[in-house]
Amino acid sequence: MNLEPHPDRLFPSDPTTRDIARKLYSLVKDEPIISPHGHVPPQWIAEDTPFTDPTSLLITPDHYVNRMLHSHGVQLSELGVGQTEFTEEQSRNAFRILCANWWLYRGTPVKYWMENELYDYFGVRVRPSAETADEIYDQIADCLQRPEYRPRALYKRFNLAFLATTDDPCDTLEHHEAIREDESFDGVVVPTFRPDKYLEPGREGWAELMGNLSEASGIDTTTWAGFNAAMENRRAYFKAAGAISTDHSHRDPGTARLSDADAERLYKDALAGKISSDDADALRRSMMYEQVRMASEDGLVMTLHPGVYRNHHTPSFTKYGADVGCDIPLKTEFTDALQPALADFGDSENLHLIPFTMDETVYSRELAPMAGFYKSVFIGVPWWFIDAPEAMARFRGSITETAGFTRTSGFIDDTRAYCSIPARHDVSRRVDSGYVAKLVAEHRLEMDEAAEAIKELVVGNPRRAFKLDGVI
Amino acid sequence: MNLEPHPDRLFPSDPTTRDIARKLYSLVKDEPIISPHGHVPPQWIAEDTPFTDPTSLLITPDHYVNRMLHSHGVQLSELGVGQTEFTEEQSRNAFRILCANWWLYRGTPVKYWMENELYDYFGVRVRPSAETADEIYDQIADCLQRPEYRPRALYKRFNLAFLATTDDPCDTLEHHEAIREDESFDGVVVPTFRPDKYLEPGREGWAELMGNLSEASGIDTTTWAGFNAAMENRRAYFKAAGAISTDHSHRDPGTARLSDADAERLYKDALAGKISSDDADALRRSMMYEQVRMASEDGLVMTLHPGVYRNHHTPSFTKYGADVGCDIPLKTEFTDALQPALADFGDSENLHLIPFTMDETVYSRELAPMAGFYKSVFIGVPWWFIDAPEAMARFRGSITETAGFTRTSGFIDDTRAYCSIPARHDVSRRVDSGYVAKLVAEHRLEMDEAAEAIKELVVGNPRRAFKLDGVI
Amino acid sequence: MNLEPHPDRLFPSDPTTRDIARKLYSLVKDEPIISPHGHVPPQWIAEDTPFTDPTSLLITPDHYVNRMLHSHGVQLSELGVGQTEFTEEQSRNAFRILCANWWLYRGTPVKYWMENELYDYFGVRVRPSAETADEIYDQIADCLQRPEYRPRALYKRFNLAFLATTDDPCDTLEHHEAIREDESFDGVVVPTFRPDKYLEPGREGWAELMGNLSEASGIDTTTWAGFNAAMENRRAYFKAAGAISTDHSHRDPGTARLSDADAERLYKDALAGKISSDDADALRRSMMYEQVRMASEDGLVMTLHPGVYRNHHTPSFTKYGADVGCDIPLKTEFTDALQPALADFGDSENLHLIPFTMDETVYSRELAPMAGFYKSVFIGVPWWFIDAPEAMARFRGSITETAGFTRTSGFIDDTRAYCSIPARHDVSRRVDSGYVAKLVAEHRLEMDEAAEAIKELVVGNPRRAFKLDGVI
């Protein structure tokens, strides 16, 4: 079968609405891509390393791809998960498994993204299948030999304008420094401060991390005050290196503050490795409160990605490590959880707080009402499992009536799959065009208003929420 | 830009469905408005006081309007929140802020309501903007000088047939008495018994309220039995003054009954100001159980509006007071919460209980199943943040398949914004017409059935749920 | 009014999409019906007993029908609930009540199912109403005299290929044996192991059930180990009798395992009738963990139907017993609840676990992510209150983007209303055709892919999830 993405794909089928959607989409489709949160390794850009093979580029790092195959009985090891070097045979075999099972992805965005990137960037014109696996593999492998498929060239071809990575607070950010200092590359690639494991005092190995933090910051972390000072120090280091945001993903987004004395006591318990699970949660929530305070001071944007049961299938974690596709979302609560921090800093000039969720119930109930009152709160667009056309349309339908078009984050790809970035952003632009078109077709918006609204969604919002004026 | 609401606004865009929707809408668009729950001050009607200026009429009292501006950095004080008298300059300035930021309301019902009321009642023909602010302001200010813009004349122009206000249990209801006794006004305006703060024994100042209650009722309220007798007394007073319902808004809708001995003990603790937060919740839930019992006896309809974190942004509450736009919804549970009261009174001839929610998840899961079994339970239509076209359509889609067309409350505007009442009811009629039209277009309903269904939604349901036969 | 179901009913109204839906539906509309979970009494088939009258066939056993009438003030006794024999007058009167109130069912699937079965199987050509009640009653009563309306003949006319009943673990399964041994009937009717009440150690009369279990299995059930051995024994008995699955419906789907010592202690407490409510829940969750273990060994598919407040209206339960329409759903959680069992058995070759829910929020948040990773987890389609066109469409929209088309259960009618089975399955086929058609119309799927997808939904999924290859 031929592969040929339709120019009207993802637009509503009603002819009137589709026609309006087409016009709105044409206004934004060529806008440069702003990607303020993702997982591309900075080393790729710093060293402009050629990609080695189709599997380690397109399959192994992408848990969206792997998990579906796993649910049909494929072993993660067959796909190279947990492996860094591949023989030609291993890489080709994994690719054959993917293509032979391509039908499983029907109705999912993986199919959409992959077919678009194969078509647009690798010149593939046949649908993946057992029969076409080798042909497609060879075609991609051939491309990867060529200079225009190296990371920096792709950055340009992808029309990227801004790319943030995700980094450990103790990271030296050497790759980012290399990128900044290399005048031959004019893209913008910045780090993101991701302190999760430092804020989980019940976690195994946490006390050791405090040692690393002390070393990286040069600040004694044996006290609660020292811990916070070291955090401030590393945030400043990241900010100086170009970071615009911090990212946080805990089981819940709680921000309840402990008294200094209680915090000190629990912090000491944690260092001694004898903190209870409840106390560790309480201390973590107080640490999050402090992160909000710091953000209200240093102005780094906070993105919150809570509500996931990490490594739900323990044996897969034991064998392959984290991020292999067995994280499962949990119901999440924001109204109570964020109240302590918002009562104190919600009106702050510098604070931008962007909650993301996979619990769609909070969009109309909690996040839109918060973002419709607090100037510091922006609604994160659908993320991870719900970063897909219908879920995106539900999102707009859930939040726009309360928060309008200006209080959302802009599209976030949050991906490890570099080549899927343009297709992901394109999905968002198409779906948002369709949503706004519906409002015009139903005479809830005039066409001139719609044209401004779609530009706000694609350009205005990420610039506003992530404070990008002056950065790009 | 011109302002000209389209006659087909809010109808589905599919031509077949739209045509059916238009026909169904034509059957109900001119029906008199029944407004069984809202916040219009009775004094306005009693004294027929002229409105003074556009801002204190359209902006200051409407937290929907204020909160969006606040989220973009406007101070509530700039909009007159917390202020009762305005200089011409203050009023005009606030109005300019609103118009200059009109684009923020795109996609929200505030834009829809306001543009419709400006067009229909104030003759405005230009879209609000920085440029048109003064022109629109002058036009409205001019209208407000004229007798046809006084509250009673508007009541008639709005095609109102029934309007309930919201009143304190100790209120003398003197304005309602004045309205009833004034034969020159033939509208129906009745009070609603709203005992919330009397049922929150952990609240500051609660013991003092018990004093007021004793005074108003002439009943000793130093015992649990006395408290309930005093409540019964005031409910009777309201009923005699024309009230048809009581309204309740607590954090949760719990109705668990304490033994008399436990209730007495906690009641005494509360009077002594030493009740714990958990005990206060338990006592409140037992008080709510008693309210259900009373309703099953005196027949006043109960509307429940639970599940809101009031005054989430503490500093705004401290500065401006309640109801300024920083109440944030919470997830809510009804199945367990209402079970004790429904087990005892769910089959009662006199009880009508109408739960409202902003937690859309309960519609298909809890409220439709309850209203589809209990003759005493009706489903409240979308309220507050979700009182908007798409949320209303989701509501019908969520509850109709279980509860049909006859078990919902009828539209409730619940508004402080008097002039928005007709536009709000019109949105509901249009959206419901669109929903029913979809069923016809999909051959799930014949046209004659649909015609009866839309009349049920607009006329039959509020009359049935609020027991209005014989009242209007 | 005439009754004439439209050939395009339930298809989307957009002409392009409808045309595609029609084509997809034509590919599956005549597929034999697979019904792997329901409540048809096996005795009906074993004895091929003629149905006696329209009311006891169509009204009394169907709580969907009764509950709506009850919500409008009809007494359940008027409909024959709790009654097994009917005079002509009683039966006719109940039928008249139903027909006179037919308008109440507008928008609900009851109307849709009933009108379709009346039209297709009883030749009714007029819409139910007070005026047509007797005519329809007589027509059905006349049919029921004829051999082609006996249970086995209907099994054939309904195009059933597989029908599972629901049975007590101690049941002798004699009716199933009779069916199997009767060579004159070639349908497939199998039992389902439903151990709920045996797994509720806090339930009144539970200790007595343990006696029954001991007797049925011949195994001493006075120890925790004995209890589990007895369960294994009865599961094997059911499996030998053709059972393919076990069914479980508790308040929550928890599977947390107790240590053997703790389980033993609580089990003894329960036998002694002195287990606390919390301990009974803990023991039940450990029993469920064991059921998952057993399923991973004997390969019986597990269907979970948790999250219902049974007999919410206590007086109705007291008067009429269970299953009379006053069960109300509860919010439900699966991610935490299933983790212990999935961590240990999620990768097992033999385990198939199918969670059903009436809490729609878990579809995109919990069930689709789980089924998109675990090969043992399949997503149950909408059930009970949400087994209706719009809810079904929401379901596909919620889960397909994460789990694709291959990880759902296939349609489950779960019904006591035998004659509604074909109409129920037909609704599912129509709605799924409409959903897949939308993906084609929006260029998210090619037509050849859509044709395979709809066949997967109707045929492939129930065969895969319920392991029916080799059975039918």
UniProtKB/TrEMBL annotation, chains A, B, C:
Pathway(s): Carbohydrate metabolism; pentose and glucuronate interconversion
Gene Ontology MF terms in the entry: glucuronate isomerase activity
UniProt-listed GO biological process terms: D-galacturonate catabolic process; D-glucuronate catabolic process
Catalytic activities: D-glucuronate = D-fructuronate
Pfam families for this protein: UxaC
Keyword Transmembrane helix among UniProt keywords: no
Domain of life, per lineage: Bacteria
Keywords assigned: Isomerase
Family annotation (InterPro entries): Metal_Hydrolase, Uronate_isomerase
EC number, as in UniProt: 5.3.1.12
Record flagged with keyword Isomerase: yes
NCBIfam families from the UniProt entry: PRK02925.1
Annotated family: Belongs to the metallo-dependent hydrolases superfamily. Uronate isomerase family.
PANTHER family linked: URONATE ISOMERASE
Protein's name according to its UniProt entry: Uronate isomerase
Lineage: Bacteria, Bacillati, Actinomycetota, Actinomycetes, Actinomycetales
Gene that this sequence comes from: uxaC
